[in-house]
Write a structure and sequence with these properties.
With about 450 residues, this protein is mainly alpha-helical. It is about 50% helix and about 5% strand. It is built from 21 helices and 4 strands. Helix 7 runs antiparallel to helix 8 and helix 7 runs parallel beside helix 9.
Length: about 450
């Protein structure tokens, strides 16, 4: 079902208008059409350098990202439920965070119940010193079970299995099994068709994709080597009309473009870009970690597309879904306010609202912030639980872990400095301690 709450739908609609206005004004300023056919010479050139597109990209100095996560956060902070505006709801009024909408989110007992397989007495990959079972014993047994799951090709069993983490050697196959990706000849052919669409037509969003990869993944110690893969996947993704299917359960609506002079005439409308998704600053980081697992472009492409239409779209659309970014922000703030009230009030008083710092982590599902091995352990759990709520729990855990240092800061800049580098963090111990060792 699309979004049930009217005010959420309206907010999403007006946010989309803002994005389109930004895109259209860029077109006008730069005098660049939204789409044009490449000349034959240009097609040949692109085909020849398809595997090394990072070497000589166009001049991107005039292009800017359509929006960045902080612009999106400003919109979410202004969300209000009109029914609550005048009524004095004391239960809700005491929420002192930035998000001011009354959505139900889980509390710690409910989270413990939901994420019970992360419990202290359950074997986990990503925990080095489990007291119950020597890690190597658990790992050997866990690998054996994983191989059995793969042999039986049981998608539901694979999903249950990865809740305790994936052995590195089995992860690529297990994720493909959970996402029902088999990379058949027709899938490879479909990918080749998308590629030929990229070769034939030049879209304005291509430059946004180039720019985003340059600003993010190309500067990342882990991901810069995958630059060419990122261009291939993202350029094909922008042409893929099968992605439009997810708008049937997404609060968003794909933007339309009209043939010149026919504005508003539906027969002359096309979705733009063809997949209906306008990339924003950091979008390419949804693909980057997958490059560690899949080296065959068509399979990498399918895995990313499936991850996007199941999970990632929720991180940049306004909805009341429990895995939507609004609920994640609310869950994060509620956890901090309940379990670290002193820290929450301290940061709020000095103008360093915690969500201003953690929002960018959650929007990117922590990609580019955690070390890759830790990020993949986190994404194991997203797939295992079929939920993004763990992102909010991890964000709160990071604040809990750094609480002592954060209590001493006196400005937003100082708080950001304390949390600037997450690359040394170990995800699973943080989550376990926060969920299962917190006194409630």
């Amino acid at each position: 079902m699309k979004e049930p709450l009217v005010y959420m739908r309206k907010a999403q609609g007006s946010w989309e208008k803002r994005i389109l206005k930004s895109l259209n004004s860029m077109c006008t300023e730069l005098s660049i059409p939204l789409a044009r056919k490449r000349p034959i010479g240009g097609q040949k050139e692109l085909l020849n350098k398809w595997n090394e597109m990072g070497t000589d990209e166009p001049d991107l100095s005039l292009f800017r990202p359509v929006y960045a996560p902080k612009d999106f956060l400003e919109v979410l902070m202004n969300l209000r439920n009109p029914n609550y505006e005048n009524g004095d709801q004391p239960s809700f009024r005491n929420h002192l965070g930035l998000i001011q909408v009354p959505l139900k989110v889980k509390d710690i007992p409910e989270l413990r119940d939901y994420f019970s397989e992360l419990g202290l007495n359950t074997g986990q990959l990503g925990i080095d010193d489990s007291t119950q079972v020597p890690p190597e014993l658990f790992e050997n047994e866990h690998v054996r079970v994983g191989q059995t799951v793969l042999t039986e090709q049981d998608s539901a069993a694979a999903q249950q299995y990865v809740r305790q983490g994936c052995p590195t050697a089995l992860r690529a196959e297990l994720w493909a099994l959970i996402l029902n990706i088999s990379n058949q000849p027709e899938d490879i052919l479909y990918y080749e068709q998308l590629k030929s669409n990229v070769i034939q037509h030049d879209l304005l969003v291509d430059s946004l994709i180039y720019k985003d990869v340059k600003l993010t993944a190309s500067n990342d110690d882990y991901y810069f080597v995958f630059e060419d893969y990122l261009y291939q996947v993202l350029l094909c993704f922008s042409r893929d009309t099968s992605v439009l299917v997810h708008f049937s359960y997404n609060s968003a609506t794909p933007p339309k473009s009209y043939i010149r002079g026919k504005l508003g005439v539906e027969e002359y409308a096309v979705f733009y870009p063809p997949n209906g998704v306008i990339p924003f600053h950091g979008f390419s980081m949804y693909v980057a970690p997958l490059c560690f697992l899949y080296h065959e472009p068509s399979k990498l492409y399918q895995i990313f597309r499936e991850m996007y239409v199941r999970f990632f779209f929720r991180l940049h659309s306004i909805s009341s879904h429990p895995s939507g970014i609004v609920s994640l922000c609310l869950l994060f703030e509620a956890l901090l306010q309940t379990h670290l009230p002193q820290l929450f009030y301290h940061l709020r008083e000095i103008g360093a609202q915690p969500l201003r710092i953690s929002f960018k982590w959650m929007v990117r599902a922590f990609s580019g912030y955690l070390a890759t091995d830790q990020l993949l352990l986190l994404w194991d759990r997203i797939l295992g639980y079929n939920s993004l709520e763990i992102l909010a729990v991890l964000a709160a855990s990071v604040f809990a872990f750094r609480a002592v240092n954060l209590m001493e800061v006196t400005s937003l800049a100082a708080a950001e400095a304390v949390l600037a580098d997450l690359s040394t963090l170990k995800v699973m111990p943080l989550l376990q301690i926060f969920l299962f060792a917190t006194v409630t």
